[in-house]
Design goal:
The chain is built from three helices and ten strands; from the N terminus they run H-E-E-E-E-H-E-E-H-E-E-E-E. It is of the alpha+beta class and about 160 residues long. The N terminus is likely disordered.
């Protein structure tokens, strides 16, 4: 067996801070929080901890909502997911190289191509994913482009 792939994991594990959780307390809540510097904190029913990932993994994140990706040239700058009971909330922040109006128009056009209803409402795009989960994409000016936040609420 070639052990070199296992050795590549050692630097990643060295950057981890993981503790076991008591699985007997029936806490089914899950949370994952990541920032634009690659710091990821997680709390799972069996473990909690922190890990540092390369910032390129955050910024180049592959976001997909019903087949709609972030506008080309965009970067993920933060991610939060809290799941509990029969639902979950996902918040993702991003930057885009275009104006807020162009970003909102991009999302509405892409959702329509996928058969998902979406509309512009003030400074946001609102709609429901194909599984019925409501989403909001707020976009505002930032520097030479835009800054946005995607919020999805799942009731599963």
């Amino acid at each position: 067996m070639n052990r070199s792939p296992l050795l590549l994991l050692l630097p990643l594990l060295a950057g981890c801070n993981v503790h076991s959780n008591n699985g007997a307390n029936d806490d089914e809540n899950v949370s994952i929080h990541a920032d634009d510097n690659g710091h990821v904190k997680f709390n799972l029913p069996i473990a909690q901890g922190e890990v540092k990932i390369p910032t390129s993994m955050m910024h180049g994140g592959n976001v997909d909502i019903d087949g709609v990706k972030l506008m080309p040239g965009s970067s993920v700058t933060g991610f939060n997911m809290d799941a509990h009971g029969n639902g979950a909330n996902v918040d993702m922040s991003f930057t885009a190289p275009a104006s807020p109006d162009a970003v909102r128009s991009y999302f509405v056009g892409e959702f329509r191509k996928q058969g998902t209803k979406a509309a512009i409402a003030g400074d946001a795009v609102t709609g429901k994913s194909k599984d019925g989960s409501p989403f909001t994409i707020q976009v505002r000016p930032a520097g030479s482009g835009s800054q946005g936040k995607i919020e999805i609420q799942s009731k599963d």
